[in-house]
Design a protein that fits this description.
The protein is mostly beta strands and 569 residues long. Helix content is 1%, strand content 48%. It contains 1 helix and 63 strands. The strands form 14 sheets. Strands 1, 2, 60, 61, 62 and 63 form a 6-stranded antiparallel sheet that branches. Strands 7, 8, 9, 10 and 11 form a 5-stranded antiparallel sheet that branches. The longest helix has 5 residues.
Length: 569
């Protein structure tokens, strides 16, 4: 039932196992195995490189790494082109901008540390704060923290800020639209938020929630403490003071138009929306604070006189319960329906759109799923020791062989939970079959058992016409199945990214390993073999909306960029 992690995930050696050497770049050549081009990015020197320094650009077009040069100097090599010489280069500092156009890294010249951005070398500093460097999302801007003597500075687009006693590590952030940059700084014993050069009032402490900025980048929010008072500053305006603010609860609605958080005052809990406190309650479950996807509604679970009630837009909904699941509630994609788990006595149930379903011994507290079309709802439930997949309020039914089994229970259901197709018309999940086999139920039909199953790999194509997943057999091999049929052959391992579908749903892609070599597989057709396929931000394969595929592979001491049009194989 368990699977060998090494056959599913990339090891460090598999993702960065390259070496340096004399660099040359060739013209694109046809790719054996799959139609497309093969361009030499670099020829590496096996004796001079630092394999752990290798980075790949997010768009899978460029590579960079550190190599040892002459006279005890070292340098960065990008796509075969060696850069300037330095006394040392921090191994983990190499970073590409999101568009892959610029590369930055931290180096040492004599007694000073410098930041290299593109071809520009910064002024020398006594210290550059490790891992503080960031590019803006559009790649046009950058920022980092540095120290001269005993003063710290934020360096934004090459310009130094006024000096501070300290720049708080990891506080530097660009807004998603790249227009704003902010960080937390210490002035003597106080802290300030500096946003686009504007300094906030001084506080004892400042914290940032999951994100300082909204998704649009036009709004901001952070938590501040002065003495015994806590407040949240929204768009530069300080809100009401409380005894405590739950920092992890601070959140923006998806559309960025609303902000909510949980606060405590006078022994009571209160949900605050857009700076306006709601009704105080005995308790509010912090994890339950949830915006609807369109941001119009805010729901949470609150305790009233020992009972628990769902609260929606500040009003109680339905009847009181003995308990409410703290991970929920869950809104449908259009925000019109709300689901939450409840306990009455020793039994659990699920309320969907105000209606309490059948009782259960327990429920899968993080398995609630609405279909993308808002028409279906599913979750995992337990009844007297057996687990069921509940679909639209009823245990799912499937046909196994010629025998229809009603209300069939499973010893265990898969860890991924229910999976809906993007159009909401299809439904799949994994189950334990018998004692130690795993199977996949699709559209109410249970397929053949597998010795091993990567339950996280279940994925529908964009149009919902195909389901793919990764399964293992008794022979120790792994296979990709698309609509129950094997794509390609058997392999020693499948890349951790699993299956990738083309935007038109017509093609299935993945990477696989055989005899310690890696290959790309498109609709069962295999590319040539590589010692390694390098991993970018989103995995080893970059597939555009126009179905242009890119990946980077190493063969011996050569690194190649492979490009092909999916569908032209």
């Amino acid at each position: 039932m368990s699977h060998d992690i090494r056959l599913w995930t990339y090891t460090i050696a598999a993702s960065i196992g390259l070496v340096f050497g004399t660099a040359i770049v060739s013209a694109a050549q046809p790719t054996p195995g799959l139609a497309g081009s093969k361009t030499l990015l670099d020829t590496i020197n096996l004796s001079a490189w630092n394999p752990r320094s290798l980075v790949v650009s997010p768009n899978i077009r460029s590579i960079a790494y550190i190599q040892r040069a002459s006279n005890k100097k070292i340098q960065v090599v990008r796509n075969g082109q060696p850069g300037a010489l330095f006394d040392s280069i921090k191994r983990d500092s190499l970073v590409f901008s999101m568009d892959g156009q610029r590369l930055a890294y931290q180096a040492t010249q004599g007694k000073h540390q410098v930041m290299v951005v593109g071809e520009v070398v910064s002024a020398g500093y006594n210290k550059i704060l490790d891992e503080s460097f960031i590019f803006s999302p559009d790649g046009k801007r950058y920022a980092y923290a540095a120290r001269k003597k005993q003063k710290w500075f934020a360096v934004v687009d090459g310009e130094q800020s006024p000096p501070y006693r300290r720049i708080v590590p990891y506080s530097l952030q660009f807004s998603p639209d790249s227009n704003s940059v902010a960080y937390i700084a210490n002035t003597d014993s106080k802290q300030v938020m500096v946003m686009d050069g504007q300094v906030s009032p001084r506080y004892d402490n400042i914290w940032i929630g999951p994100s300082l900025f909204s998704s649009s980048g036009t709004r901001s929010a952070y938590v501040a403490q002065t003495g015994n008072g806590w407040s949240v500053t929204i768009d530069g305006k300080e809100g009401p003071s409380f005894d405590f603010v739950v920092m992890s609860s601070l959140q923006f609605s998806t559309n960025g138009q609303h902000i909510s958080y949980l606060a405590q005052s006078g022994g009571k809990s209160v949900a605050v929306r857009d700076g306006i406190p709601g009704t105080p309650f005995e308790q509010i479950r912090a994890q339950s604070l949830t915006f609807s996807p369109n941001g119009d509604h805010l729901a949470y679970a609150a305790e009233i006189d020992g009972d628990w009630m769902p609260i929606v837009d500040g009003k109680t909904v339905g009847q009181p319960f003995d308990d409410i699941d703290g991970i929920q509630p869950k809104f449908s994609p259009d925000g019109s329906q709300l689901a939450f788990g409840v306990r009455l006595g020793k039994q659990w149930g699920v309320v969907v759109d105000g209606t309490l379903g059948i009782p259960h011994t327990n429920i899968g507290h993080d398995t609630f799923r609405f279909s993308p079309d808002n028409q279906h709802f599913a979750y995992v439930a337990n009844l007297e020791g057996n687990w069921f997949m509940m679909l639209d309020g009823k245990p799912d039914v499937y046909t196994y062989g010629r025998r229809t089994v009603e209300n069939l229970s499973y010893t265990r259901l898969g860890i991924k939970g229910p999976v809906f197709s993007p159009d909401g018309k299809r439904f799949a999940y994994s189950v334990l079959q018998g004692i130690d086999k795993l199977g996949v139920v699709v559209d109410g039909q249970l397929g053949r058992p597998h010795w091993s199953l990567i339950e996280e790999s279940l994925i529908f194509s964009p149009d919902g016409s195909k389901l793919a997943y990764v399964a293992g057999s008794a022979d120790g091999k792994w296979r990709v199945l698309v609509e129950r049929k094997v794509s390609g052959h058997s392999y020693d391992g499948i890349g951790m990214g699993g299956v990738l579908f083309s935007s038109d749903s017509g093609h299935a892609l993945f990477i696989a390993q055989r005899n310690h070599k890696w290959m790309a597989v498109i609709d069962g057709q295999e590319s040539e073999l590589f010692d390694h396929l390098l991993v970018g931000k989103n995995g080893p394969l970059h597939l555009s909306t126009s179905n242009e595929l890119r990946y980077i592979g190493r063969q011996g001491n050569k690194i190649y960029l492979l490009e092909t049009k999916v569908g032209a194989v």
